[in-house]
Amino acid sequence: MKKILVADDEDILRILIADTLEDDFDIEEAEDGREALEKIRKNEYDLIILDYMMPYLTGLEVLEQVRNDQIDTQVLMLTAKAQDADRENAMRKGANHFMSKPFSPMELLELVEKIVAS
């Protein structure tokens, strides 16, 4: 079973994402950027889902550390701001995919299935 880390400081959204994906994937959760980075450095994931803005370390800072550590895992960035500059910045820093909030659970599931299948 493919392993996914979901890192988002919003409990409701993180739980919704985990609930949406848990039937098809092995899901781990992180409540902030620091916890996400600790888990990423200790475990291997097929996909990392990062919220753009989180406490302690932002999703962008986690992404930079992941790429600096030469971890080649696929990264899906989530943001509520949905500005082109954020998308471009995340992609330049090494994000593979970008999704704007709000999104439907089906949208997320379809994208995640496509990502892990490639």
Tell me the number of strands.
5
- Uncertain regions: pLDDT < 50 for 5+ in a row? none
Determine the N-to-C terminus distance.
15 Å
Radius of gyration: 13 Å
Number of helices: 5
Mean pLDDT: 94
Category by helix and strand content: alpha/beta
Spatial strand order of the main sheet: 2-1-3-4-5
Largest sheet: 5 strands, parallel
The coarse overall form would be: globular
Q: Fraction of residues in helices?
A: 40-55%
β-sheet strand percentage: 15-25%
SSE topology string: EHEHEHEHEH
What are its keywords?
alpha/beta, 118 residues, single chain, five-stranded parallel beta sheet
Q: What does this entry look like structurally?
A:
There is one protein chain. By secondary structure, the protein is of the alpha/beta class. The protein has helices spanning 11-21, 33-42, 59-68, 84-93, 105-117; strands spanning 3-7, 26-30, 47-51, 74-79, 97-100. Helix 1 crosses helix 5 and helix 2 runs parallel beside helix 3 (59-68). The longest helix has 13 residues, at 105-117.
Q: What topology emerges from the helices and strands here?
A:
Layout: E1 3-7, H1 11-21, E2 26-30, H2 33-42, E3 47-51, H3 59-68, E4 74-79, H4 84-93, E5 97-100, H5 105-117
Parallel strand pairs: 1-2, 1-3, 3-4, 4-5
Helix pairs in contact: 1-5, 2-3
In short:
With 118 residues, the protein is α/β, with parallel strands linked by helices.
